[in-house]
Amino acid sequence: MGWVLIVVSLVVLWVASLCKILRGSSSPSRSLFLNTGGALPKRNVLLVVAHPDDESMFFSPTISYLTSRGHNLHVLCLSIGNADGKGDIRKEELLRACAILKVPLQQVKILDHPDLQDGFGRVWNHTLLAKIIEGEIISYGIDSIITFDNYGVSGHCNHRDVHYGVCKFLHDTSQGTIEAWELASCTKYDNSCGLFHCP
Ligand SMILES: *[C@@H]1O[C@H](CO)[C@@H](O)[C@H](O)[C@H]1NC(C)=O
């Protein structure tokens, strides 16, 4: 009988922690963020970032949340972050971070495209981004996208272009069932950080 009590208390604890997360959020759309509640189907999620380290600096709580709930996460990093000539090192670091964050390495893609190089003042073509993102969506049957908002947390133009590339994809696609979430930037005027449904 002892183990039954242990299982019951674990379930109660799990439900209690889930409620806490739900109550802790102020926005209804945030509280529904990919919450399976244990019953709904698992999602195929694509996280789209600009540079290696974006995943750790900005999205590691999101990644941990998703993998701990059994969602299938893919990471698309659109550059190796070679602005200072350290792209090869940064690429390795991204792979190591993903291993720690429990994202299968075969689900991590890091591009080194001549038109999508890391740097301030480098404009990334939104049509090209949308095309690349569409390719990933189709290849892996993605149903949810997570990315930066239009400020891109730090204001880096590459982050902002990634946001607009995702928006362009969402605007052009005929697949109406894809959900997209953006990480709300904290600015001097507004500290409501967190993930929100793309408008
Ligand atoms: C942007 O990318 C698209 C798709 O690859 C291409 O057709 C278009 O010419 C590009 N635009 C510019 C300004 O480079």
UniProtKB/TrEMBL annotation:
It is an enzyme of class 3 (hydrolase). One of its GO terms (molecular function) is N-acetylglucosaminylphosphatidylinositol deacetylase activity. Its EC number is 3.5.1.89. Keywords: Signal. GO terms for biological process: GPI anchor biosynthetic process. Residues 1-19 form the signal peptide. One of its GO terms (cellular component) is membrane. InterPro entries: GlcNAc_PI_deacetylase-related, LmbE-like_dom_sf. Belongs to the PIGL family. This is N-acetylglucosaminylphosphatidylinositol deacetylase. It comes from Carpinus fangiana.
